[in-house]
Amino acid sequence: MATLGNRAHTNAILEKYGFRFQKKFGQNFLIDEMILEDIIDAADITKDDVVVEIGPGIGTMTQYLCEQAGSVLAVEIDTNLIPILSETLAEYDNVEILNEDILKVDLTDYVKAHGNKPLKVVANLPYYITTPIIMGLLESDLPLASITVMVQKEVAERMQEGPGTKDYGALSLAVQYYSKPEIVAIVPKTSFIPQPKVDSAVIRLDIYEQPPVDCKNPKMMFQIIRAAFNQRRKTLMNGLNNAGILPINKENLAEILTGMGLPESVRGEQLTLAQFAALADAVCEHGKNTR
Ligand code: SAM
Question: Which residues contact 250 (CB under 8 A, 6 or more apart)?
């Protein structure tokens, strides 16, 4: 039975093991049963599902996941938490604990061993590496069904933003190319120990089978997106030209933008995902013809 989602039980287990929080690992443990239930509901987990949890901590959410899922892989970087997890998850036979850095671990074999079923990723993410974790998952070749994660509220909002807003950027575009994002809960800082400085949000990313826009050259599209937002204050023309990533010259780029009905002064933050896709394809096509 899940027992850890409150302050008293969490403190008791931490004291028993003399556990010291490590700031460098972004450790803020959940102590709010209602929020835990919200995350589990949003992740929509059944006994058919293969779940990966990133950063199980002392196993608070892992207990819920083990009760709902077919199998659970819990990847935890902090070696000091492993003996605690062995105790708190002892009653479950459908969980594997992996003492690894999620940014370095290759889950291919795990996926194969579980019939190549699309994974459901669930986590209260360590905030210092939210973006690399999400980008790494989205850009991986792993079969994914959904990613349901707790992140800083501001980062969750950024994932949903559209063109013309200050928070729209490379993360918004990558998330929206690969998935349909939906914020499912706002979580106050009082739901964690130690308390973080800012509020959090739970966001669910439903992974598309097919991206919502047609793009023959997604690699070029993401290079363009990165270059556009690296130099946010510059026009798209200058940003892309300075980045030196295009197989065409500035005049060709100007022609393409005009052909797309965009002014030469346009900034990257004004383009939709569909426009970035069209731009990447046009650049690659033009590059082939001018070679
Ligand atoms: N899931 C727990 C909970 O909700 O109470 C803990 C969440 S805490 C915000 C983040 C967890 O991720 C910590 O347990 C931390 O040690 C772990 N972590 C940090 N960096 C990691 C990494 N690179 N790979 C795997 N786990 C990591």
Answer: 237, 241
